[in-house]
Backbone:
C-alpha cells in the first residue's frame, strides 16, 4: 500500500468515527459539515487513485463507504425524528397560546 492509500483510508476511518459520534451527540448540526467533507474526499484524486490501485484497495474503500452510508442513514433518521418532535412541541405551544388567549378573552368579558 502506498502512503496515499493509507492517508485516504485513515481520513475515511476518521470521518466514519465522526459520523458515528454525531449519531450520539448532535445529529442535525454535524450532518452538513460531514457530508461536505465526505464529498470532498470522494471527489479527490487520491480517492480515485486508490480505487484504481487494486481489488483489495477498492474493497477496503467500499467497506468503509458502506459503514459511512449506514451511519449516515442513522443520522438522517435521527434528524427526521428530531424534526418531528420539534414540530409537535411547536404545535403544542401554539395550542397552549390559543387556550390562554381564549381564557383571557372570556375572563375580560365576564368581568
Residues:
Amino acid at each position: 500500500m502506498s502512503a496515499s492509500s493509507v492517508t485516504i483510508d485513515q481520513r475515511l476511518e476518521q470521518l466514519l468515527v465522526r459520523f458515528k459520534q454525531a449519531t450520539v451527540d448532535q445529529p442535525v448540526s454535524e450532518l452538513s459539515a460531514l457530508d461536505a467533507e465526505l464529498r470532498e474526499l470522494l471527489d479527490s484524486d487520491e480517492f480515485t487513485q486508490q480505487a484504481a490501485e487494486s481489488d483489495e484497495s477498492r474493497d477496503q474503500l467500499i467497506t468503509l463507504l458502506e459503514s459511512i452510508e449506514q451511519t449516515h442513514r442513522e443520522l438522517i433518521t435521527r434528524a427526521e425524528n428530531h424534526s418531528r418532535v420539534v414540530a409537535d412541541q411547536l404545535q403544542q405551544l401554539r395550542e397552549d397560546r390559543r387556550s390562554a388567549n381564549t381564557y383571557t378573552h372570556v375572563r375580560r368579558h365576564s368581568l
